[in-house]
Amino acid sequence: MPKFAANLSMMFTDSPFLDRFARAAAAGFDAVEFLFPYDYTPAEITGAARAAGVKVVLFNTVPGDWAKGERGLAALPGREEEFLEGVRKAIDYATAAGCPRIHAMAGLVPEGADRALMGRVYRDNLAKAAALAAAASLDVVIEPINTRDIPGFFLNRTEEAAAVIADVGAPNLKIQFDIYHRQIMQGDLARAIADHLPLIGHMQLADNPGRHEPGTGEINYPFLFGEIDRLGFDGFIGCEYKPKGETEAGLDWFAPYRS
Ligand SMILES: O=C(O)[C@@H](O)C(=O)CO
Ligand SMILES: [Mg+2]
């Protein structure tokens, strides 16, 4: 049976962040993920997860100045030190929380940028991040993101992520396969999951259009969950969707999988 993680940056957002861990547990989730923990101390994050009895399975490294529109640093020339500083910070939080993986966002392509240079910086940075993470027994994941939600994002397609991983050659560098982004950019979901399965470290879901609960759009999630199970994917699927109403009221889709 697929294993699901509640995304605490998008679900239960009518509660303060640290209270969302307990709401996720009460809704039947054993695991959670979120974008960033950095407004809290590692002890606060770890304490909230332990008190709720949920595992933390993913969060992002420091993405630059999110409020100013930055969306990651991994491919940005001139920001290498800052990127690695953010990776080290994420590793400290992940180690405290027992979280097995961190997500390094590529970043936006600056106006007139040299994409080839960005590709080299991306690979160099990811090699260093993967080495730092390996020393702490963690994986690093990279996520192709659709160009509609984040115009100008550097990494958009599954095959590009696979090529970067092949070039870097670090066994702990993997794909964060977000089904919603893949559907918008490329579709062919079941085939793409099967083709890339050995490289996939984490998955995420939302329906399309709207990025709401499974069952609100065009993606046949019951079929895909069956495929993911049949293929033997043993990682987590993060529920990274915007609930249409109250989070709990939109969890009918989750009933067959609830622990
Ligand atoms: O899909 C997303 O948007 C996220 O997984 C993320 O990490 C960056 O926004
Ligand atoms: Mg995602």
TrEMBL record:
GO biological process: glyoxylate metabolic process
Pfam families documented for this protein: AP_endonuc_2 (PF01261)
InterPro entries for the chain: HPT_OtnI_isomerases, HyI-like, Sugar_Epim/Isomerase, Xyl_isomerase-like_TIM-brl
Listed transmembrane segments: none
Keywords: Isomerase
Start and end residues of each Xylose isomerase-like TIM barrel domain: 21-255
GO terms for MF: hydroxypyruvate isomerase activity
Protein family per UniProt: Belongs to the hyi family.
Protein name: Hydroxypyruvate isomerase family protein
Protein source organism: Elioraea tepida
